[in-house]
Amino acid sequence: MQVLLAVGNTIVTVDVDSAEQTASGVGSIQKLAVAPNGQFVAAYTADGRLKVWVSDFTKALSEFATQSEKLPEQLEWCGTDSVVMCWEVSTLCPTLLPLHDLSLPPPPPFANPLVPNS
To answer: Quick one: which of 27, 90, 1 has its CA closest to 11?
Structure first.
């Protein structure tokens, strides 16, 4: 069994017998998640970016600027091809208006597949 640790701008792989630097210069990582198949690693950095690498950190696959100043509560893989991050609701919607103040258009017919067509 191996464990990945983010230490500053470095990723360290730790197992029962040793610890070795796996990658450096990856950014100040706040959260890490390994894909279920072990082939990919997703990381959330201090500057609000989601980064995805192959698991040996030799190739960056994706980078997305979330534009969030807050750390997500969760960073999880959905299968092996997508990542989801979760913040508190108040972080996503810091100013909520009362519902009666919103004028929203009706949803398209395909938006609620559980309602039968009339």
So the answer is: 27
Angle at 84 between CA 107 and CA 77, to 5 degrees: 135
Q: Where are the domains of the chain?
A: 3-89
CA dist 109 and 71 (Å) reads 36
Residues 6+ apart with CB under 8 A from 77: 33, 34, 35, 36, 40, 42, 83, 84
Please answer whether residues 80 and 37 qualify as being in contact, where contact means their C-beta atoms are separated by less than 8 angstroms: yes
For residues 13 and 30, the answer to whether their CB atoms sit within 8 Å is no
Of 33, 28, 55, 58, the closest CA to residue 43 belongs to 33
Q: Which segments of 1-118 does DSSP mark as H helices, in order?
A: 89-92
Ranges of the chain whose pLDDT falls below 50: 90-105, 107-118
pTM more than 0.85? no
Looking at residue 89, its pLDDT comes to 61
Tens digits of residue pLDDT in 39-49:
998 989 989 98
CATH architecture of 3-89: Beta Barrel (2.40)
